[in-house]
Each structure stands twice: as C-alpha cells, then as structure tokens.
Amino acid sequence: MKKEDGSIYDRIGGEEGIEKLINSFYERVLKDPVLAPYFEGVPMDKLARMQREFFAMATGGPAEYTGRPLAHVHQHLKIKKPVFQRFTEHLLTTLEETTELSKDDIMNLISRVNVEIDEISVEVGGAE
C-alpha cells in the first residue's frame, strides 16, 4: 500500500485503514495514565466516529467532519499544551506502527493535528 499516488486516505487504506488507526490509537491513549482521565464518561463510540470523520477529511478522503470545532469541544477540560503533545506523540507512534505511510505523510498529518492543538491551547488552557 505504499503507493505514492492518490490521497493519504487512499494510501492509509481508506475507511478500513482509518478505522484501524483510530482503534489502535485510542487503545494506546486509554492506557496512558495521564490521558485516560480525560475520557472518563466519554461515549467512545461517538468519539471514534467523530475521529474517523476528522481523519478521513484530514487525509483527503470523502468524509466531511460533522463535529463541533475542537476548541469548543475541549473548552471545559482546561487542557494544557503538554497534554496535547502527549496525545500527539501517541498518534505519531500509532501512525508509524499501524500504517505504511511515508515519513512525509505522517509528518503532514501530525502538522495538521498540531495546528488544531495550537488553536485549542490558545483558546482553552494556555501553554503550560
């Protein structure tokens, strides 16, 4: 699946690849003692569906993200930037371990996530 043509969505394996990525990612996140408390009481089926939409859209797939803006969704959590960085580190590891994407594709996705992190950090919890 290391085709260099087509979208990242296609190279990741389409809908099936996105689902595998999200499932593996949240397995990792929910085992992290720092991150897991943020997901207590969260309907994980809905969260996984929203993440599949987000990643399908972010990778050039046919899905449209129908969720609320991330800064709005996370506002009540007062999440600090280091927590989002930890979240992103888990995403990076998951992408490396569950996909055959090139380093460039992976860094492109991480960059897109970091743009969202910066928006959330500024609007929600500051940089600490």
Number of domains: 1
What order do the helices and strands follow?
HHHHHH
Estimated radius of gyration = 14 Å
Percent in strands: under 5%
**Distance linking N and C termini:** 40 Å
Average pLDDT value?
Answer: 81
* Name of the CATH superfamily: Globins
Per the CATH scheme, the topology name is Globin-like
The CATH architecture comes to: Orthogonal Bundle
SSE inventory with pairings:
Blueprint: H1 8-12, H2 14-31, H3 44-58, H4 70-74, H5 81-98, H6 103-125
Question: What would your notes on this structure say?
Answer:
The protein is an all-alpha fold and 128 residues long. The chain has one domain (8-125): Globins (Globin-like, Orthogonal Bundle). Helices cover 66% and strands 0% of the residues. It contains six helices and no strands. Helix 5 (81-98) packs antiparallel against helix 6 (103-125). The longest helix is centred in the C-terminal third of the chain and has 23 residues, at 103-125. The protein is globular and about 40 Å long.
Task: Please tag this protein with its features.
128 residues, mainly alpha, Globin-like, 6 helices, disordered C terminus
What would you say about this model in short?
The protein has 128 residues and is mainly alpha-helical.
